[in-house]
Amino acid sequence: MKEINEKASYCLNCKIKPCANKGCPLGNQIPQFIEQIKQNNLKKAYEILSETTVLPSICGRICPHKKQCQGSCIRGIKGEPVSIGELETFISDSMQEENSLLDCYEEEINKNRIDKKVAVIGGGPAGLTASAFLAKKGIQVTIYEKYNYLGGLLVHGIPEFRLPKEIVKKTVDKILKLGIEVKYNKILGKNIFLTELEKEYDAIFLSMGANQSSKMGIEGEELEGVYGGNELLEYKMHPDYKNKSVAVVGGGNVAMDCARTIKRLGAKEVKIIYRRAREQMPAEDKEVKEAMQEGIEFLFQNNVVKIIGKDKVERVELVQTKLVKMENDTRLVPINVENSNYQIDLDYIVMALGSKVDSYIKELGLQTNQFGNIKIDENYQTSRPKIYAGGDLAGIKSTVAWAAYSGREAAKKISEKIRTE
């Protein structure tokens, strides 16, 4: 506790609060909850956090803090930023048993209770957060989940070594204590249908996520031994990696998670291929460092141009890249360097280049954009007035905090709308 108090005391509680106002997608009241830690009032700190989030134990562990709250910390200008993620984790873990969301929300739930029902399709970060904030508004919520568990990518997309499943389970249990009903093994378009749900509920929130791996569109991607990173993590249908050479293409946390998981499963060597420099990697710096410490090799400023093999992967052809600033663009763009091609032998290659929505989304009868995401307006409403959407499905930024933010804000809009009907 002494160490935690020292870390809390390091916070300046500055007036402009960029950590919260600029850095945190959820707008957590960071200096305020840290101030309560200084005063050893952990319950009050938890209550302050619970005003804006229901996933503090999770976000405290896996958020890209250096790119969000800690990256905006005033302390970080001349030294180390405040350890916001660690303090958030400490508070939420400390209050896991002693305090619950129901304690924080019960008075508001009773005051707001109305005879309205909302269906939430998908129990990942966006769906869980939307459900909690709808319940907080006194609305009856039913989650429809395709698996026999809740959590979505928190369970099947993030490895145990980064986010223990027990933490997710405890978080889910606290949310369900708000009086939320769950119907498991329900798949949209197979055993539940939007047209039927529209008749039964006052509103529907879609939050199924987007977990289909993107491809590069290069020669050889159809060969045996080419895998999508998202699918590997979700379905855990790994090949035998023992004494094999594996490359993971991409620079985000999914690429890090895939590489570190594959290394743990016995691969002889694992390489991460990324076409930009290390400082451009979207993955959290902590994850990159840990991957390096585990013996994973990084090939920065390299681009895969071809996968070679007869029936299965045998090797890949790479080309080195240089970073160039384009006209009217502040970003550095990777350009292939002529005559820098070379090949390396491989047994498997994993594409971890981002994700897209499943193709069945187009069959739901909702308007989509050019990327296949469901179109929503400023109220998170789709082209059908009773149906709302958030998270990756609607093209929201792909982090847990941003997904949770979309769920919370959609819940507010849904509540406002159905209360006037």
Strand content: 15-25%
Query: Quick one: CATH superfamily of the largest domain?
Result: FAD/NAD(P)-binding domain
Q: Any low-confidence stretches, pLDDT <50, length ≥5? A: none
Count of all domains: 3
Major sheet: size, sense and barrel closure? 5 strands, parallel
Radius of gyration: 23 Å
Please identify the structural class as seen in this structure.
Answer: alpha/beta
Q: Strand order across the biggest sheet?
A: 3-2-1-4-16
CATH class wording of the largest domain: Alpha Beta
State the helicity in percent bands. Answer: 25-40%
Fold-level CATH name of the largest domain: FAD/NAD(P)-binding domain
Contiguous helical run count: 15
Q: What is the CA–CA distance across the termini?
A: 50 Å
User: Mean pLDDT, nearest integer?
Assistant: 94
Based on the coordinates given, report the CATH architecture of the largest domain: 3-Layer(bba) Sandwich
Instruction: Indicate the overall shape.
Output: globular
SSE inventory with pairings:
Elements: H1 2-9, H2 18-23, H3 30-38, H4 42-50, H5 56-62, H6 84-98, H7 101-112, E1 117-121, H8 125-136, E2 140-144, H9 153-156, H10 165-176, E3 181-183, H11 194-200, E4 203-206, E5 212-213, E6 226-228, H12 229-235, E7 245-249, H13 253-264, E8 269-274, H14 285-293, E9 297-300, E10 302-308, E11 315-325, E12 332-336, E13 342-345, E14 348-351, E15 355-356, E16 387-389, H15 400-419
Parallel strand pairs: 1-2, 1-4, 2-3, 4-16, 6-14, 7-8, 7-14, 8-9
Antiparallel strand pairs: 5-15, 10-11, 11-12, 11-13
Descriptive overview:
- This protein is α/β, with parallel strands linked by helices and 421 residues long.
- It has three domains: 2-98, Fumarate Reductase Iron-sulfur Protein, Chain B, domain 2; 101-210 and 357-419, FAD/NAD(P)-binding domain (3-Layer(bba) Sandwich), CATH 3.50.50.60; 213-354, FAD/NAD(P)-binding domain, CATH 3.50.50.60.
- It is built from 15 helices and 16 strands.
- The chain has helices at 2-9, 18-23, 30-38, 42-50, 56-62, 84-98, 101-112, 125-136, 153-156, 165-176, 194-200, 229-235, 253-264, 285-293, 400-419; strands spanning 117-121, 140-144, 181-183, 203-206, 212-213, 226-228, 245-249, 269-274, 297-300, 302-308, 315-325, 332-336, 342-345, 348-351, 355-356, 387-389.
- The strands form four sheets. It has a five-stranded parallel sheet, sandwiched between helices.
- Strand 1 (117-121), helix 8 and strand 2 (140-144) form a beta-alpha-beta unit.
- Helix 1 (2-9) packs across helix 3 and helix 3 (30-38) packs antiparallel against helix 4 (42-50).
